[in-house]
Amino acid sequence: MPDVRTLVTGRGLVEAPRWHGDRLYFSDWSAGEVIAVDLAGASEVVARVESFPLCTDWLPDGRMLLVSSQEGRMLCQEADGSLQTYAELGKAGWNDIVVDGRGNAYVNAIGFDMMAGEEFQPGFVAVVTADGSVGQVADDIAFPNGMAVTPDNATLIVADSYRHSLVAFDIDADGGLSNRRVWADLGESYPDGICVDADGAVWYADVPNRWCRRVAAGGEVLRTVTLDRGGFACVLGGPDGRTLFVTAARWQDASETGPVPPGSGQVLTTRVEVPAAGWP
């Protein structure tokens, strides 16, 4: 088992890790906070948004985008720290976001309120292009979770948790998606947050199986990092791009204290051989 280090502990449902500049940014959905932490463990809250989910990514110009799910808005943090509306998304239910190298912001939505016990409906993917327009670009994603873009800006990969697979699309010149295909069949895995490395493999986090796993196109398992709690998302980063950051927490069924026990959320790290590539 690889050496796994705890960088942050005592948090709630932690998600959406992103390496930016010289720090890791992640969201604590339970607290409605976006936190930045350096490799020594020093952290600060950089934004507060009452949203569940609460996912973030960065525009090429360095501004942070935040998905305010309940409001159906995409927010942008300006240089003065204020949060301004970047795009009106519409009906609530928005989940993950990834921004490609051209500034296209892909955001997905779950088709039903799982926590409220609504009947299942498949979700979809929308794009907010650099000119501010919003449009749906893919549908019939059973439960869309993490997304990643390859370093050539040519392919969007989406984790479909309920179908136990990673789905890929070609990214068209206008930001639209085409040529849908199954990038990897993951068997009984439930992929959540994902990232791409320089060899073209994908790392994905898995809550019920309590691991982060690296797979090649087609689904061949290349490496598994076992965890003592559910893995919600992962990203490669650090000065050399070879640190795998994992947001993890102890999942529990719906209860008075929420989907994870308070204080069980952690950010974990381990070293890997192949560095980060693409987005996030």
UniProtKB/TrEMBL annotation:
<feature type="domain" description="SMP-30/Gluconolactonase/LRE-like region">
    <location>
        <begin position="15"/>
        <end position="250"/>
    </location>
</feature>
<keyword id="KW-0677">Repeat</keyword>
<feature type="binding site">
    <location>
        <position position="145"/>
    </location>
    <ligand>
        <name>a divalent metal cation</name>
    </ligand>
</feature>
<keyword id="KW-0479">Metal-binding</keyword>
<feature type="binding site">
    <location>
        <position position="192"/>
    </location>
    <ligand>
        <name>a divalent metal cation</name>
    </ligand>
</feature>
<dbReference type="Pfam" id="PF08450">
    <property type="entry name" value="SGL"/>
</dbReference>
<feature type="repeat" description="NHL">
    <location>
        <begin position="132"/>
        <end position="172"/>
    </location>
</feature>
<feature type="binding site">
    <location>
        <position position="113"/>
    </location>
    <ligand>
        <name>substrate</name>
    </ligand>
</feature>
<dbReference type="InterPro" id="IPR011042">
    <property type="entry name" value="6-blade_b-propeller_TolB-like"/>
</dbReference>
<dbReference type="InterPro" id="IPR005511">
    <property type="entry name" value="SMP-30"/>
</dbReference>
<feature type="active site" description="Proton donor/acceptor">
    <location>
        <position position="192"/>
    </location>
</feature>
<dbReference type="GO" id="GO:0016787">
    <property type="term" value="F:hydrolase activity"/>
</dbReference>
<dbReference type="InterPro" id="IPR013658">
    <property type="entry name" value="SGL"/>
</dbReference>
<dbReference type="InterPro" id="IPR051262">
    <property type="entry name" value="SMP-30/CGR1_Lactonase"/>
</dbReference>
<keyword id="KW-0862">Zinc</keyword>
<protein>
    <submittedName>
        <fullName>SMP-30/gluconolactonase/LRE family protein</fullName>
    </submittedName>
</protein>
<feature type="binding site">
    <location>
        <position position="15"/>
    </location>
    <ligand>
        <name>a divalent metal cation</name>
    </ligand>
</feature>
<keyword id="KW-0378">Hydrolase</keyword>
<comment type="similarity">
    <text>Belongs to the SMP-30/CGR1 family.</text>
</comment>
<feature type="binding site">
    <location>
        <position position="95"/>
    </location>
    <ligand>
        <name>substrate</name>
    </ligand>
</feature>
<dbReference type="GO" id="GO:0046872">
    <property type="term" value="F:metal ion binding"/>
</dbReference>
<dbReference type="InterPro" id="IPR001258">
    <property type="entry name" value="NHL_repeat"/>
</dbReference>
